[in-house]
Each structure stands twice: as structure tokens, then as C-alpha cells.
Design goal:
alpha/beta; Glycerol-3-phosphate (1)-acyltransferase; seven-stranded mixed beta sheet; 6 helices; 7 strands
Length: 241
């Protein structure tokens, strides 16, 4: 097994060096209407305080059934912002997302992550537990948010290359994929708030990914590139201006 990729650990205060054991067997409880009513105003305030946000295409996200959302990653608030956009359009659906395991070693990061549906992944490894949990999420008709690039793009450039994990997840879950573009204005524009645009693309049916029961590396790369191309096309509507 490849060595786990650990980054920015020195920037996380009160980091607990002990091994973290996530409860992979806990039931996947659906968030209640009360949950959304309670946290939505807070999420809205946080997102709008940080960004000048716009979003489009939330109606492309199916309101039922298991699903993968594949998005580029430009800010730590991306999961909350995406959920805010969906809730704004009446998508009362539970969404969960992967977060690098280092965050679960810090109590003040772990608590909100778990509250909003985050679960750990050991980056750079074949993390079977995380993969099996992802399948469990989709099998339970919930949404799984994935960042194919594996980390934030601090340069805020057009999304292009990505890890093969998104294609592997799609194959394991047999799930359709909705591409999501997140555009954040480049640094140095002199704006009071960064322009932040989220665009949800049309569903990519699983069959169009070209993944068999035992896909070859070439097929995984091709499926990953297809997803990233769709994200890039959405991003161009804002970044290419």
C-alpha cells in the first residue's frame, strides 16, 4: 500500500498524533427537515460573508437516488456552499463528502465535519474502508460529494487533470455523476469579496463513463477525463471571460 499523503499538519493547532478510528459501521441517518431549517440560515450567512456567490443549474441534481457530485476544489467552504445552493432550491437531501484524515485529528475541525456529513480518507492510499463507505452512501440513496483533484487548487486555475479515484468510485457505486464547477476570482483583483460561482452540469449517466466490471487503467483515465472535461466546460463560462 502506498504511503498516506499528509499535508499542512503543522498548521493545525492541537493536532492529536494518536491513530484516529472512525466508526464505519454507524447507520447513515437522513438529515431531518429540522436540521436544514436550523443550519441553513447560518450556512447562508457564512457563505455570503466570505463570498460574492452566484449559482446555476441546481435543478440538474436529481431529487432522489444515489448520486456522485464531482467538483473542483477552491475553498474550505466548498461543501457547505454546495449544500447551501441545493437547499436554496429545495433539495432536502443528505449529502456527505470525503475530507483528508488529518482534519479528524483536530477536535475543532472534526466536530463540524462530522456534523455536516464529512468522513475521512487517507490520501495517496487504496483506502478500502473509505471506498466501501462511499458505496454505502450511494446505496442508501444519498449524495456523495467528491473532489477529483484531491486537494484545493490555490492557484484557482481551470480544472484539468485529476486523480483516478472519481472513476473508481463511479465504478464501485455504479452511480451517475453530476459535474460541478466552482469558479473563484483570481487573487489580486481588488474585490471586497471573491466572486464565487457554482455551476451544476447535466447528469453524466454511468453507462457513458465506459467502465466495465474490471476496467483497465486506460478506461479509468478516460472516464476521469470525461468528468473533468465537463467540469472544465462549466468553469469556462466564468473563468474564460
Amino acid at each position: 500500500m502506498a504511503e498516506q499523503i499528509v499535508t499542512n499538519k503543522d498548521r493545525l493547532h492541537f493536532y492529536n498524533e494518536n491513530e484516529y478510528n472512525y466508526n464505519w459501521d454507524k447507520p447513515l441517518v437522513e438529515h431531518s427537515a429540522f436540521f436544514y431549517k436550523a443550519w441553513y440560515p447560518v450556512a447562508k450567512a457564512v457563505v455570503k460573508f466570505k463570498f460574492d456567490i452566484e449559482f446555476y443549474g441546481a435543478e440538474n441534481v436529481p431529487k432522489e437516488g444515489g448520486l456522485l457530485l464531482a467538483a473542483n476544489h477552491v475553498a474550505g467552504l466548498d461543501p457547505i456552499a454546495i449544500t447551501y445552493c441545493l437547499q436554496n432550491k429545495g433539495h432536502m437531501r443528505t449529502m456527505r463528502f470525503m475530507a483528508k484524515e488529518e482534519f479528524f485529528h483536530v477536535f475543532y475541525v472534526k466536530i463540524p465535519l462530522m456534523y455536516f456529513g464529512g468522513f475521512p480518507v487517507k490520501r495517496g492510499t487504496s483506502d478500502r474502508k473509505s471506498l466501501e463507505y462511499s458505496k454505502k452512501i450511494v446505496d442508501n440513496d444519498q449524495i456523495l460529494l467528491v473532489f477529483p483533484q484531491g486537494t484545493r487548487d490555490k492557484e484557482r486555475k481551470r480544472p484539468g487533470e485529476a486523480k483516478g479515484g472519481i472513476a473508481l468510485l463511479a465504478r464501485e457505486t455504479k452511480s451517475d455523476v453530476v459535474p460541478v464547477s466552482i469558479y473563484r476570482s483570481p487573487e489580486g483583483e481588488g474585490r471586497k469579496k471573491d466572486k464565487y460561482v457554482i455551476r451544476f452540469g447535466e447528469v453524466i449517466p454511468y453507462e457513458e463513463l465506459g467502465l466495465g466490471d474490471k476496467p483497465k487503467s486506460k478506461e479509468l483515465r478516460s472516464a476521469t477525463q470525461l468528468i473533468m472535461d465537463k467540469i472544465g466546460e462549466l468553469w469556462d463560462k466564468d473563468g474564460a471571460k
